Structures are given as C-alpha cells and as structure tokens.
Amino acid sequence: MKARLWKGLVALVRETYTAELGEGSVPRPLMMPLVRGELVGLISVPAPEAGQDAHAAIAELANLAAAAGADEVVLAWETRDVATACELPVVGPAPCVNVVLATPDGHVLHSFPYAEQLLCHSPEGWASTAPDWQPAPAPQPGGELIPPIRAAVGRCFTPVELAHPDPFGVTVGRMEQDGYHISLSPAFAR
Questions:
Q1: Is the pLDDT of residue 86 over 60?
Q2: Which pairs count as long-range contacts for 171-175, CB under 8 Å and 24+ apart, including other chains?
Q3: SS3 at position 94
Q4: Which of 13, 103, 113, 180 supports an S-S bond with 93, CB 3.0-4.6 Å?
Q5: Measuring CA to CA, which residue among 130, 126, 62 is closest to residue 95?
Q6: CB 188 within 8 A of CB 41
Q7: What is the residue-averaged pLDDT of the chain?
Q8: What's the mean pLDDT in 10-17?
Q9: How far apart are CA 127 and CA 142, in angstroms?
Q10: pTM for the complete prediction?
Q11: 3-state class (DSSP) for residue 10
C-alpha cells in the first residue's frame, strides 16, 4: 500500500473514532477493503442488539472484502470495546485504537493508544470524551490478533462462491439488511 493512502486511511479511522467518542457512542469495528490499491468502501458492524454474537458480527465484515476480491484490507477496532462486546480479556494497550493492514501474505498490526479526556456528561448518563493520542508503539508484523479480528482477517481473501451473476451486489444487499453500515466508493457503488 502506498504510504500516502495508508496515512489517509489511518487519519480517517482516527477522525471517525474521535467523532464517535465525542458523541458519547461506542466506536464500532470498521473495515476498508482495497482492490489493486483502490478503496472499495467502508463497512462497520451493526449496532449491537441483545443476544447478538459480536464475535460473528465482526468476523462477517470479511464478507464484503471477499466478495469484492480484495487484495488488501484495513480493519480497525477499539481494544476495550471489542473485548467487552466479545467477552474477552483486554490484550494490549487500552484505551487504544488498533489498525491492521492485511494481505493474503500476512498482516501488520498498528496500535494508537490514547488517554480519554472527559468533555461532558449527559442527563441520560453517557459521557462524551475526546482522545488525547499518545505516542504509537512500533508496528508489529504478524502481531497477535484477538479471535474475532483474526477470523475476519482470515476470511477476507477467501473467494465468495455464490451462484449469482453479481455476488458483490448480493453480498452488499444482504449485509445492509443485516444492519451493517456500508459506504461504497463511486467505482464500486451499485
């Protein structure tokens, strides 16, 4: 991946997470698949519902990348939020936004720790915070991924086998019906 594109995608992730924290919401995992250096779009997991399997919802992010024939993916998540949703122990720095760049040949894990700055409390009890980004540790080629992220990365490059003339369009439609938020770049929009 070209350095300029990588920096732009990381900036987009940080801006997205900053905005969500500022609104008092929990940042959800998001994925940006690429095909030959061109961004397919952005997909994020649906809002959690009671009894929903967060692990499966995160792993299923890979369906869009696989249907598009992605050769690279960028997957981002917040350490504590995914650990809580998936009932896993917190691994690595927290709070922290993690971004993995994956290809069929492997992955590199990037961590962006932050301190939370309280902005305000709402009458309903939620807190609005802003990240104070801390120095990032060195990227970790082949760094350990938690199970739902490892599952998503592992499925991104497995071709989708649908008996349909437009497997990408069908996949997008099904995922939108399941509550995934998908924003496609113009070259991939239906």
A1: yes
A2: 171/63, 171/64, 171/66, 171/67, 172/64, 172/67, 174/63, 175/43, 175/60, 175/63, 175/64
A3: coil
A4: 113
A5: 130
A6: yes
A7: 89
A8: 91
A9: 35
A10: 0.90
A11: helix
